[in-house]
Amino acid sequence: MCGICGIINSDGRPVDRGVLDDMLTRIRHRGPDECGVFLSGRAGLGHARLSIIDLSGGQQPMHNADRSLWITFNGEIFNYIELREELIRKGRKFATSSDTEVILHLYEEEGEDCVRKLNGQWAFAIWDSNQDKVFLSRDRLGVRPLFYAEAGRSFVFASEIKAILMHPSVPRELDFMALSQTFTFWHTLPPRTAFQGILELPPGCSMTVRANDRKIRRYWQIDVSGENQLNSDLIGREDSYAERLGELLLDATRIRLRADVPVGAYLSGGLDSSLITAMIRQVSEAPLVTFSLSFEEPEYDESSFQRQMVSHLKTEHREVRCTHDDIGQVFPDVIWHTEKPLLRTAPAPMYLLSKLVRDNGFKVVLTGEGSDEMLGGYDIFKETKIRSFWSARPDSRLRPLLLRRLYPYMDSLQRQPEAYLRMFFRVRPEDSLNLFFSHLPRWEMTSKIALFFSEDARSRVREYEPYAELEEQLPASYRSWDHFRRAQYLEAAYLLPGYILSSQGDRVGMAHAIEGRFPFLDHRVVEFACSLPPNLKMRGLDEKHLLKRFASGMLPQSIVRRHKQPYRAPDVNCFFNAAKGRFRQDYVEDLMSPSCVRQFGVFNPDAVEMLVTKVRNQQATSVRDGMAFVGILSTQIFIQQFINHFTTRTNHATSSAEAACVYH
User: Which member of 70, 260, 575, 627 has the lowest number of beta carbons within 10 Å of its beta carbon?
Assistant: First the structure.
């Protein structure tokens, strides 16, 4: 994994090397091993390398034989060996053993359609001097980030927004509509980012940039419509479906072990990571090191299941135990790397986990992300089923009792009386017709954080409706889908790339130059999963039915049959020490003070002070209070770091980074 950046001037001016160097400096944490710069007239590309494949020969930016094409590439192409052999048969000659060169040759053969043949996770830019254009692309599921902006007469792009902000013509302004989206969906809707005028290339899309022309083309779309559904006559077929799923997962795991450095695995103790770890054992005889998180709060800790799997698979295991203080201390660093406000602290322990991996000398880990979205693992899918069942008879007194089957790992919710559950998960007559029926309880709860907005912030979003912008992006057939398919699409197409693979994935992993690889997000696995009938994903209220059937022969039943416990982390307790009656970190006291809240202008200082008082009095015990506190605090940190105090001047001890760069 790496960091990429570039500048393309539309008016023919030569690229300012100093600006490109400064952009590259901002993302050197993504690629600390090497760096390179290509400059040619109006085009400039930068690359910070994390060397994983072809350690001695994969330097970038890389060119083709006649130097008409130059590429800067962040990611891995896992089927590069097969593609390379195919290209050699066509007469192509290779100068390296890298997957990067495969992309260049494939682009020469296939043009912009080359991305359809790639199995991997990527964000890259190719400067094509013959056609005087730059071609950019991002992988199907959005594992790797790619941002861009129009900066005067320049088109600027990078793996992270902080690099784009180094360009003197790019303003640093908060997008209040994006903030409204975050306080509803947990993430922004691409192409929006938290910054006004800085955009994100959506997953599954490519972009062509010429002097005065920008075109975005979608080359892949997740399809849960059921139009390609497998035969729904399940009698005697479940085993064959499970076998096929297993074959795809095993091959996806096998090719994701391709690396010229050691590869480890995250092991949470849940079904998904345990299965991936078991499959690594099947396809590789190399010693396997696994990494996990544990928590001091029992509600979040899964270490007993982790130990069980370590014993079962006989891995060498490393663990980082996260305390409340640990999470609170690194939270500002997490915001610096995620580059957006957050509603949960969950990315912070993942940041600490990636540091553990790096401290143990690893650069690559396989993880289990994507299984829940593709194979029906989340409780929100159960919730949708129960609420849909309830909506058929809204006056029923028995049907809402099924809500007790939800979220057994959340003690605070389980203690609530029946009346509260009915109110929170309510089913109004009009709700079942709502396009977002499955997500209404979640989104209506988080959107209440906007009640803390200042009058100025409210005036900026008064006429804005986040649901309307999301509705404009939905596939044409979405309205004809059942509630389960809609819920799956919203999780897979939006929450997965917008939050899980971003804030909990790439951004906190690459903060310590750690690359995550995701077998469940191999596009062949995804397409197969999307073709399965819903009752193979969730049988009644049994989540991931087919995956469990496959896993039963590989894992202990205690792991296969345990209730899904999604990864979570404590929130308010990470910032407030109830025993001592004070905030754990000085920055929290400062940023949540009425004077600072008033100065930054996004929130109402009186409303925030009431929330802070609830925290001090240990009355902020609800999920909504916790998310509001984290959301406000993270926004305050974001404004301080990126709007008020961000500097475009780099310390030219930075020139040590420049000195290590190769200039073309």
Answer: 260
